[in-house]
Specification:
Elements lengths: L2 H14 L4 E6 L11 E5 H9 L3 E3 L2 H25 L21
Antiparallel strand pairs: 1-2, 1-3
Length: 105
Amino acid sequence: MDVRQYYKKLHELEATLPEADALVVSFETPDGGKAGVLTEVPRRNACQLMLEGRAEVASQAQAEEFRRDEAAKRQEFKKIQAAGKVQFQLVPGESNKPAPETTEN
C-alpha cells in the first residue's frame, strides 16, 4: 500500500471515531495475537490496528462490560491499598517515668 494512501485512510478513519480513546477487540494474528482481547487505546492507534486488520472497534455492549469490570477492579485495588495503610495518632500525655536528673559540675 502506498504511504500516502495509508495515511489518507488513517485520517479518514480517525474522523469517524468521536472519542479521544477507543476500545478495540483484537483478532487472532499469525504472530501470536489473541482474539477477543479488549484494549483501550488512543484513537490513532485504534485506527492503525483496524487498517492493519488486527482489531475492530468494540460493540457498545462489550464497552459497557469492559468499563464495569475495570471500575470493579479499580475499587478492589483501592480497598487493598487502604487495607495496607495503618493509621495511628500519637497523643502526648503524662509519663510515669521520673524526669532525668541533671548533674551540675
